[in-house]
Amino acid sequence: MWLYLAVLMGLYYLRRWYRERQVVSHLRDKYVFITGCDSGFGNLLARQLDTRGLRVLAACLTEEGAEQLRRRTSDRLETVILDVTKTDDIAAAAQWVKERVGDRGLWGLVNNAGTFHAVCCTEWLTMEAYMNTIKVNLLGLIEVTLNMLPLVKKAQGRIVNISSILGRVAFIGGVYCSSKYGVEAFSDVLRRELQHFGVKVSIIEPGYFRTGMTDQKRTPEKVKQAWEDIPAHIRETYGQKYFDACE
Questions:
Q1: Residue 159: what are its φ and ψ, rounded to 5°?
Q2: What are the phi and psi torsion angles at 167 (to 5°)?
Q3: What is the pLDDT along the chain (247 residues), one digit of tens a residue?
Q4: 176 catalytically annotated
Q5: What gap in Å lies between CA 247 and CA 238, rounded to an integer?
Q6: 106 near 148, Cβ under 8 Å?
Q7: Among residues 40, 29, 32, which one has the least CA distance to residue 78?
Q8: Phi, then psi, of 209 in degrees rounded to 5
Q9: Which residues contact 179 (CB under 8 A, 6 or more apart)?
Q10: For 6, 119, 179, 197, which has the most beta carbons within 10 A of its beta carbon?
């Protein structure tokens, strides 16, 4: 029995060693489009892929973010301004990418753009917060994917959607969790449908990381603002002691 177990363990580590030695060739000929590159994961990924020689097409929300990224990368990296909640922006970005990748297609699409509302009770959030979170985290991701899909299929590339651990276990931030559960479902369906075309779809579920979106200095301010904005009759049902405990 122990011999069989030793053989199985040996085969497991042999397979793992073999997979880890696989290297993607011709990186300088491969294009990757990344959303949300002003800061955080998107910014770090854009810089890392650029260092490895890939042709990075980085989408930033602001010109300031794009300029800062260009200063820290090579001439290979190109930027475009993109608000994933705006259909015209997405269509223009898709055309911009098409002009650059040509017949090679898009080797990688990383949907990273996201937003997070105040960490507070679901009832404290406005409908504007609900709509904005859904638009950025889910609908924007879907629309970007659908616009870039023909280019990804042409390259038999891969799509990487940045979800969250809160897309698997919902315990805080009702609308944020809802948006990330939607990302998980969309990705799972897309993975099965695109398998026929040789396209891979992956999900990354980060836990809590220190990024601009989770700035500890701004969190109390956001919670306080949400508390002050809710109608008085709702605030009374919770009471000041409840709010103080939340802080």
A1: -120, 130
A2: -90, 0
A3: 677 788 788 888 888 887 777 777 777 889 999 999 999 999 999 999 999 999 999 999 999 999 999 999 999 999 999 999 999 999 999 999 999 999 999 999 999 999 987 777 788 888 898 999 999 999 999 999 999 999 999 999 999 999 998 888 887 768 899 999 999 999 999 999 999 999 999 999 987 656 555 555 666 777 777 777 778 888 888 888 877 777 6
A4: yes
A5: 14
A6: yes
A7: 32
A8: -125, 150
A9: 133, 134, 136, 137, 138
A10: 179
* C-alpha dihedral sign at 36, 142, 99, 108: positive
pTM equals: 0.85
- Buried-exposed string 110-125: b where 16+ CB fall within 10 A, e elsewhere: bbbbbbbbbebbeebb
| Nearest-angstrom CA–CA distance, 116 and 168 | 16
Q: Which of 4, 18, 130, 176 is catalytic?
A: 176
Closest alpha carbon to 173 in 226, 135, 118, 224: 118
At 109 the three-state DSSP class reads strand
For the record, the structure tokens of 41 come out as 């994961």
